[in-house]
């Protein structure tokens, strides 16, 4: 039965992650980038400054808390184990395409997060938003919104946690010998304690853990790179030649390198799949574009910086193999990808402590990913019951998910590696196709909002969204007037 499931999911992923996905994500990223005037380069400094804006309220969290909660989902399993899988399947060239797709994916993320802010609503005193809300309120597609909510809810609650949980448990087993079931149980308990406090506690935990784990991981990467700095010119040549199928040593064709780079870059950044939209919508901000810029910066940090760090660790220390037949000098020939590559890389400098260090980093990276998955799944589920008279149903659903998702997380921690990654890939790919249709159709709103933002910046004002000046059907005008009441009165 397990073999049948794995084969079926693998077959489905072949279609979901085929040429169509390359065109969808790559094409949309390039198109959005051009139409927005290469904003991720032109407004690079502004993009990063939006991360640290304050302004939380009873209804929403601060931009920084939202950024950290979103980064909790981005900086996760894909940044360590996912990069290793990409290199094994697509050779060093996969890293080239991963970095490139990260740059263009930032435009996709900008669009979906800006839309999430624009069409957000207040439910039970808290901001809620996401692809389903955009579909219903922006396009009038209530049925499609319901479909989106079901797909994203099931994907985030049931399938996406599979790779994260398995990888944490596997890393600790490799580093310390602790049984995977024990590690999975601990993760499940920690998840329950965190999500039981709602978005405020989730964002608080993310705001403490994400900056710490990212800085520590980058410091260790810098040390490993410094030790191997003389190898960098040769490494760059290997990455570029492999990216275009010109390096027979690693055996991967250009198509495989591109596919793996796009897949893992998308998995890591979560751009286009609708994951980051609910958390972006939860932020208290004066203009939708501000949160779009903040999240676009998050994609750069996640894919362009952290994923590159993991790739450098693996490639500079030659602790990798490829499916095309290459066997690195610092890793056993039968190891076919995963966190072991990164553990072996760090161990070349830190010795036996390297395995434990990577296991701890992976625990932090993947655990924060899990708490973010929970919030996204909860938001999707509550969309289905958003009427005022359904408040008791919403509370029941929330409690059920707070108990149920940790149980599922425990189960995923003890399954087979290939199944875990295949299920996560299937969930990611499916939600991406479902979500991107809405993002593409509503993208003209993003262009208009961005122009409004730029005009206010050029005029020397702190941008705010005035629905009397720029609005569309489905936007909660009264909510935005309340948010920016003082600014609108003073104009």
UniProtKB/TrEMBL annotation:
Record-annotated membrane-spanning stretches: 15-42, 147-168, 180-199, 206-229, 235-258, 297-316, 356-375, 396-415, 427-450
Topology versus the membrane: Multi-pass membrane protein
Subcellular location: Cell membrane
Any one GO cellular component localisation term in the record: plasma membrane
Key words, A-Z: Cell membrane, Membrane, Symport, Transmembrane, Transmembrane helix, Transport
Chief place where the protein resides: membrane
Entry-linked Pfam families: Na_Ala_symp
Top-level division of the source organism's lineage: Bacteria
UniProt KW Membrane keyword: yes
GO molecular function: amino acid:sodium symporter activity
Family: Belongs to the alanine or glycine:cation symporter (AGCS) (TC 2.A.25) family.
Name of the protein in question: Alanine:cation symporter family protein
Species of provenance: Sedimentibacter hydroxybenzoicus DSM 7310
């Amino acid at each position: 039965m397990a073999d049948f499931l794995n084969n079926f999911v693998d077959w489905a992923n072949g279609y979901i992650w085929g040429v169509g996905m390359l065109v969808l994500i790559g094409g949309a990223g390039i198109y959005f980038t051009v139409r927005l005037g290469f904003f991720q380069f032109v407004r690079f400094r502004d993009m990063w400054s939006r991360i640290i804006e304050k302004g939380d309220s009873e209804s929403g969290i601060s931009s920084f808390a939202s950024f950290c909660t979103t980064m909790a989902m981005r900086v996760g399993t894909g940044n360590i184990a996912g990069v290793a899988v990409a290199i094994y399947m697509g050779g060093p060239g996969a890293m080239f395409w991963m970095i490139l797709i990260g740059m263009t994916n930032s435009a996709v993320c900008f669009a979906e997060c800006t839309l999430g802010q624009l069409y957000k609503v207040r439910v039970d005193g808290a901001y809620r938003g996401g692809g389903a809300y955009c579909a219903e309120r922006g396009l009038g597609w209530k049925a499609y919104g319901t479909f989106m909510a079901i797909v994203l809810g099931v994907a985030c609650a049931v399938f996406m946690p599979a790779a994260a949980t398995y990888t944490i448990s596997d890393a600790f087993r490799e580093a310390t010998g602790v049984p995977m079931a024990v590690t999975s149980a601990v993760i499940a308990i920690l998840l329950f304690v965190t999500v039981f406090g709602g978005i405020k506690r989730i964002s608080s935990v993310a705001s403490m853990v994400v900056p710490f784990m990212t800085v520590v991981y980058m410091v260790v990467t810098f040390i490993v790179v410094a030790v191997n700095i003389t190898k960098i010119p040769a490494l760059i040549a290997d990455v570029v030649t492999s990216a275009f199928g010109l390096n027979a040593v690693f055996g991967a064709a250009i198509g495989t390198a591109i596919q793996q780079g796009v897949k893992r870059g998308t998995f890591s950044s979560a751009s286009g799949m609708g994951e980051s939209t609910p958390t972006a919508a939860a932020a208290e901000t004066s203009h939708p574009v501000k949160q779009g810029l903040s999240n676009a910066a998050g994609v750069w940090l996640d894919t362009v910086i952290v994923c590159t760090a993991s790739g450098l660790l693996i490639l500079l220390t030659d602790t990798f193999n490829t499916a095309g037949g290459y066997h690195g000098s610092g890793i056993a020939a039968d190891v076919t990808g995963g966190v072991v590559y990164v553990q072996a890389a760090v161990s070349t400098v830190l010795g036996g402590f390297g395995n434990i260090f990577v296991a701890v980093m992976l625990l932090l990276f993947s655990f924060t990913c899990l708490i973010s998955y929970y919030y996204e799944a909860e938001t999707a589920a509550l969309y289905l019951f958003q009427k005022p008279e359904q408040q008791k149903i919403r509370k029941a659903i929330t409690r059920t998910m707070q108990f149920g998702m940790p149980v599922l997380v425990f189960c995923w921690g003890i399954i087979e590696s290939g199944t875990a990654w295949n299920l996560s890939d299937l969930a990611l790919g499916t939600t991406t196709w479902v979500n991107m249709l809405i993002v593409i159709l509503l993208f003209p709103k993003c262009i208009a909002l961005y122009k409004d933002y730029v005009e206010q910046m050029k005029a020397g004002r702190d941008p705010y969204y005035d629905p009397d000046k720029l609005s569309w059907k489905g936007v909660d005008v009264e909510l935005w007037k309340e948010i920016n009441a003082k600014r609108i009165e003073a104009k």
